[in-house]
Amino acid sequence: MTWSEMQPLLAQACQETLVMVGWSTLIAVVVGLPIGVLLVLTDRGGLLQNTPVNKTLGQIVNIARSMPFIILMVALMSFTRWVTGTTIGSEAAVVPLAIGGIPFFARLVETAVREVDGGLVEAVQAMGGNTWTIVRKVLVPEALPSLIASTTTTVIALIGYSAMAGTVGGGGLGDLAVRYGYQRFESGLMWITVAVLAVAISVIQFAGDYAARTLHRRGGRSGPGPKLRLLKAKEPAAADISKVA
């Protein structure tokens, strides 16, 4: 197979992979973020401590994470058909990819949020902040560099899942490698597909690491910044008290 014949196949496969990974990542982040935060809030000593909810939610996440993706795809075929009307193609592959990515990202979010300094949470509580304020102003902003790194890891994992989805008709680069590289013995096309995946993963990893380092270096909202703002907010009140005395 010549390069002119490979080029349109690679372009279409890359587009399909981009659609699968893009939509599944978006769904995984939107759904997995609140789940990860809730796992922290409902844990022992958390702001919304609730052991039954925490154990149940944690068990669901563990079961979903422990299931191999190829088995998950087969198990979700009926649900995928109900949602998309089909079980083949890149649109159908988004369903198992998203469901597989949600618990994966949720655990990474849980780990990132747990790293936030508890002193900041206590300071906001002392200022009268409620749970939503703490989540919005402290937990998520402080964990943002780690959350970006977690998103990068999730995207890379979903690229691997999408290649696996291609083996069962999901489309994308995995489907191209199997149908042409393996079944038609086009080894050149298969190795080009491998190289494309390797380059894509390297670029995504570099971009994610750069973004996380930049936020961490700036301090975004990490470090002692919020605590200092809280202290400054208390100073005028102390001055007023001295005047009254």
Automatic annotation (TrEMBL):
InterPro entries given in the database record: AA_ABC_Transporter_Permease, MetI-like, MetI-like_sf
Limits of the ABC transmembrane type-1 domain: 14-212
Transmembrane region(s): 20-42, 63-82, 88-106, 146-168, 188-208
Presence of keyword Transport: yes
PROSITE patterns registered for this protein in UniProt: ABC_TM1
Annotated membrane topology: Multi-pass membrane protein
Domain of life from the UniProt record: Bacteria
Assigned keywords, A-Z: Cell membrane, Membrane, Transmembrane, Transmembrane helix, Transport
GO CC annotation terms, alphabetical: plasma membrane
Matches recorded under Pfam families: BPD_transp_1
GO biological process: D-methionine transmembrane transport
Chaperone listed as a keyword: no
Cell compartments where the protein resides: Cell membrane
Family annotation (CDD domains): TM_PBP2 (cd06261)
PANTHER family per record: ABC TRANSPORTER PERMEASE, D-METHIONINE TRANSPORT SYSTEM PERMEASE PROTEIN METI-RELATED
Similarity comment text for this entry: Belongs to the binding-protein-dependent transport system permease family. CysTW subfamily.
Name assigned to this protein: ABC transporter permease
Organism: Streptomyces griseoviridis
